[in-house]
Every structure is written in structure tokens, then in C-alpha cells.
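Section 3.1: Structural characterization of target chains.
Under the original work plan, the team committed to producing a structural model for every single-chain target entering the pipeline before any wet-lab resources were allocated. The record below documents one such target. The sequence was received from the expression subgroup and is listed exactly as submitted; it comprises 374 residues.
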Amino acid sequence: MPANIKCCENCDEETAQTIATRILESAVYSAVYSSQSLVNKLSFKQPFDCLDHELKSLLTSLEKKKIENDDESERLSSNGNDNKKNEQASGLDVLDREITRFRDHKRTFLIELQSKEQTERSVQLLMQHLSQNNAMFVFDEANMFLVEPLRRVRIARGLLRKFDVNGVASCREMIDDEDEDLKRKHEAVCSFANLKCERCLEAYSRKYTRKHEKVCKEFEVECPMKCGEILKRREVGLHVVHACQKRKIKCPYEEYGCRNEEESITFSNYKAHMKDNQDKHLLLLTNDVHARLKVIEHEHVRLEKQLADETKTSCNNIRELKRFSEEELKYSKTNFMHLEKRLANAEAQLDREKSSKLALMKRLEVLEKHMLNK
């Protein structure tokens, strides 16, 4: 093939950005797993310390995998196994599997035993650290992939073009690099030429122009409520809720039974609905008031009956309590009189014993004197 004949370098921007993100995540996870290994734990290595080496190893691994894949394709072609060559996994699948394999190749049994939350937290902290400006002074120019999104996408584009031999997400057209007219003509029709939306300034491939128009926030669309307004897609949500003339409004008398089966109530016909149905609304409100009054009357009768029953019960309880109190008082008085009588008898008995004691003492004194005289 002549040196000036080269493959078109256009590729799908969205796929390239996805690959760049996957490569960065794979390197970060591998760095976290590497720092959690027993050897690095003993040397006190942190994920940040392992990241530079892991990224270089990943990019080297991808380049090596591409060479192996090309050799396998060439071997199948030379052996005439075109069917097997076609059955080979697509280049993008190989790239995705290799990135995934590298992400998990340092995951060990000991790491599996650790908390997944701890690993995810380490990954998040490392990703946040990479987004800081001071991270740009840590890596050399070759590894600015880690901190510069544009460089990441540029490297991812190169990998995408190398692996995507089937042209799934990249242009495989061979063009004369020295023929400027041919290059311009091809660029004007290339499906994977990168375009920039004039509305939202987002980049996309020409192949996905219609797809972008369906999601572009600045693209003008008709109101989904068919009110006739033309507005930007990002304004549709607020418009439908707050400004659309055909947004549905709930009638304040709906809870009383107002139903409009023929036409739904919208902002544009709300006033007409309220004006045309004044009598109906008044009747519904009156019927509801009457129904509520009946309920209140029934409740009033029930409460009055309940009050009368409770009053009667209370009166019976009061009479029973009064009778019980009188009986208790009578019993207490009788018992108290019996106790007073017993107390009086005890006092009389005590007085008698005192008198007997005095008499005995006098006799003892007389007897003692008589014995002394003898």
C-alpha cells in the first residue's frame, strides 16, 4: 500500500469518550487493588502511588493485545479461514474485555474478603484527587492522560481506530493523504466526521445527527400538549407545568362531584368552565352541605344518647358510692364505740390493779416495821 494512502481518522466521539472513561476507571481500580495487596501494604503504598505504574501497564497491555489480535487475524487469513476470522470477536469487544480484565487482574481472595464499600470509597477519593489541579504536577507529559480529558479522548480515539477493524464506530475508508480535494469531499460525506451542534455546542458524529436532534436540549420542539408553542427542549418541563395553555387543571368542585367527561379542564377553558357550571357547582355544594348536615344530625343524636347513658350510669355509680360510704361510716362508728368501751374497761382494770398494788405495798411496809421491832 502506498505511503500516502491512509485510513480515515474519523471515529465516533461518544464511543471514544466512553473508552477513555473505562480506561481511567480500570487503572484506578487496579491501583486500589494493587495498594491493598499484602506486599504493598507492608511497604505502605497508597492507591495514588500505584496509579502511574498501573496506567502505563494498561496502555502497554492494550497495545500488546492489538498486536496479538492482528497476528491471529493474519494467521486465519493465511490459512484461508475467512469464516473463523469473521466469527472472531469484534475489535471493540476485545478492547472492552481487555480493559475489564486489567481492572480485575490484581483482585485477590484477600481483597474479596474486605469491604466493597471501602474499595469503592478509595476509588472515589482517587478519582476526586485526579480532578484537582495539583495532580497535574505529579505525572510526566506521557501520563497526563490521567488529568487531561482532551488527552484521554485523543488516546482513546487512537485505540478505537486500531481495534475497530470492522468499522463499527470508526471510518475505515482509505484515502490519499496528499489529495486535498479528495480529503475534503470525503470529510463532507464521512459518517463519523465530528460535527458540533450549533445550538448546544456538543460534538457528535454525522452518523448520529438525527439521534442528537432527539436529545439536544437546545433543539426547538413543539409543545407535547399541542398548545402550538415552539420552545427549546430544555424548557418543555417548566412550560408544561406552569405556562402551557392546555395544561390540565383540577376543578375546585371536583371533590363535590363535578365531572367533565366530554372535555378535560385546561388553563385555557378553566374560566369558561367555572362560568358555565355555576348553577351545577352551587347545586353540588348544596347537596354536599345537606349530606354533611344529616351526618352531623345523626352524630348529634348519637352523642346525646351516649351522654344520657353515661349520665345515668354516673348517677347510679354516685348512689352506690354514697350507700357504700354510709355503710362504711356506720360500721366505723360502731367499731369506734366498741373500742372506746374496751379502752374504758382497760383503764378501770388498770386503776384497780394500781389500788391493789398500793394496798400490798402498805402491808409490806407494816410487815417490815413489825419485823424490825421484834
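The chain has two domains: 5-189, 271-374.
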